[in-house]
Each structure stands twice: as structure tokens, then as C-alpha cells.
Amino acid sequence: MENQTAPKKRIFSAIKPTGSFTLGNYIGALKNWVNLQEEYDSLFAIADLHAITIRIDPAKLRAQTLQSYAILSAIGLDPEKSILFIQSHVHEHAELAWILNCYSQFGEMTRMTQFKDKSAKHADNINLGLFAYPSLMAADILLYNADLVPIGADQKQHLELTRTIAQRFNGLYSETFTMPEGFIPKVGARIMSLQNPLEKMGKSDSNENAYIKILDKPEDILRKFKRAVTDSDAKVFYGEGKEGINNLMSIYSSVTGLSFEQIERDFDGKGYGDFKVAVAEAVIEELRPVREKYDMLINDKAYLESLYKAGAEKATYIARKTLSKVKRKVGFIS
Ligand code: ATP
Ligand code: LTN
């Protein structure tokens, strides 16, 4: 018998428009989205509902949401292949999140390390949205019955909680949600700050030299890598206590596809100076086409609007079906 093509598996992921995307976002998540869209039925969202869990100026949120959407397109996500949308445009997310709140336990939420980190950082605004953040993320994923969720290592705990919530709901009301798996890259799942390699590279670091922005100019990328904190060994190899070099090797490996062994061989006898320049050049070349495409897109607001409207329409079509099933199961009259 001819091999009938099985229906494609589905992926979902999202990113918050809380600032300029970093090389960490790119390597840990976005780059994989682009690769996976070829094989999977894909949906990707700009998580603006999640963004307001931290106080953000409305004008800034508006601008960053549009810029973030343009970046999705600029990195190579193809609106013909993937559904690209803005989370708040599909109100089913907020609605399912409320329902899932009622199937999530207080104790589970208090154990989330992101909640602990963010509430320590923003002690004056520990709002309920920040607390319930993971059940909204669960709603994002479960609405589309995603099989796979490409994320960086920091989101693993949230994905596990999503599975717990899905399992609980399925157990109570019969099979409703697909059990999602995380897709966390082997190399680059946690890109570290260039200034403090013990901390995650984050968008909101007060030191600009700590992170590379996807849209940084080549000269800024080179300068930041040259200033990256390393150690006094002066030998390029992956090892304990060499977090700065380990991080640069992870970045270089993710961008070039070279293994750590190959990198060690290529830089045998060379110093950190040469290595830093090589990493910078590889990153500059990787990001150059992204910046060029972004510069074109961001000036075409009408085109962007047509894309995000079409994306929201397609996403709504899928989300609506799941939500009505859920409402029926919990006992709401239709
Ligand atoms: P914020 O600082 O506002 O919390 P964030 O960059 O940590 O932002 P998101 O923008 O929502 O959070 O992250 C989008 C994706 O990028 C997620 O899958 C996350 O795991 C991944 N990611 C974020 N930072 C890194 C990093 N340093 N290394 C690898 N992946 C990362
Ligand atoms: N919580 C994620 C962003 C996010 C997400 C999602 C990721 C929101 N909804 C659904 C994967 C699937 C973060 O903070 N990085």
C-alpha cells in the first residue's frame, strides 16, 4: 500500500513583546521555530497578554508588539506555512485561561521559579496575572492541541505544569487536550549574559553590554563580544569554571553547527581574542539578513496589519473549536 501521509503534528510557541529580542531568544527559541515550521503545522504568537504581568507603558507595548511581529517575519517564519498572530487578538486564550485557573492549584503556582524571580524583581507589583501566568501559557498551548512546544530551558517548568493541568482536566472529563512535549535545544537552551556568565541573557538587563539584540548593528555586536567576560586560562575548551567560554562556544556552535570538539580543534593554539572575533563574525552574518528584512517590513504597516489580521482569523478558527468543547465538558449551557 502506498504510504498515506499522516496528518502533520502541531507546534505552538510564543514570545513576549517586553523588549528587543536577544540572541538568547533567537538561539533558544526563534531559530528552532523557523526550522520546525517545515515539518509541523505551526502557530506562533506574540504574547502581549503575558507582557502586561509586568508594568509596561502602553505606547511602548504597542510599538514593541508590532516590532516583535515584524521580527517573526524577518527571521524567516513564512505566513504561508505558519500561523503568526498576536495573542490578545484571539480572546479564546483569556477565556480558556480563566477556566484552567480553576483546575490549577495555588501550591503548584507558588513553586514556579519564574514567579519567584519576577516577584523578587518587581516586589511592588506582585499581581494575580503574574501568579496565574502559567495557566495562561497552558491555555495558549492546549487551545491548539500542540504536540510540541519549542522553548528555552527556563520554560521547562511551565511546560511541565501545562502537562499536569491537561492531565488533570482529561482525567476529570475524558480525553480533551493533547499532551504537549517540550522541544528544548541540546546546545543553546540557556544563553548566558556576556557580562555575567552565571546569569541568563535577558532583555531587561541594565547593562547593554550583557546582551546582543537581534537588531544590533555589526559594530555593536563585535564590541560586545570583545568585551565579553571570560577567564584567565586563555585556552578555548569547554569545561567547569569556564562559563564565559562555554557560553561563547554554545553561541558559536548553535550558529555554525560545529561541534564543541571541532571548535576546540579549530582554535587550538589561538587566544580568546581570535575566538571572540570569530564568534562575533558568525553572529553578525547570521543576523544580517534578519536586520535587512526587518528594516523593510517595519515601514510597511499596512502589510503587517494584513498579516496579523489573517493570522488571528486562522488561529481563532482552531481555538474556538477547542474552547467550545471545554465549555461543554465543564457543564456550561451553549
Ligand atoms: P523577559 O525578560 O521579559 O521575561 P524572556 O526573553 O525571558 O523575557 P520571552 O520573551 O517570553 O522571555 O522568551 C521567549 C523564548 O525565548 C522562550 O522560549 C524562552 O525560553 C527563550 N529564552 C529567553 N531567554 C533565553 C536565553 N537566555 N537562552 C535561551 N533561550 C531563552
Ligand atoms: N512564558 C513564555 C512565553 C510564552 C510561551 C507560551 C512559550 C507564553 N505563552 C506558550 C511557549 C508556549 C516565556 O516567558 N518565555
According to CATH, the fold-level topology of the largest domain is Rossmann fold
How many strands appear in the DSSP assignment?
5
Helix content: 40-55%
Mind telling me the CATH class of the largest domain?
Answer: Alpha Beta
Overall pLDDT score: 96
Q: Span from first to last CA?
A: 44 Å
Strand order within the widest beta sheet? 1-2-3
Uncertain runs with pLDDT below 50, 5 residues or more? none
Helix count, DSSP H or I runs of 4 or more residues:
13
Q: Major sheet, described briefly?
A: 3 strands, parallel
Strand content: 5-15%
Q: Would you tell me the structural class of the helices and strands?
A: mainly alpha
Order of helices and strands: EHEHHEHHHHEHEHHHHH
Spatial shape:
globular
Radius of gyration: 21 Å
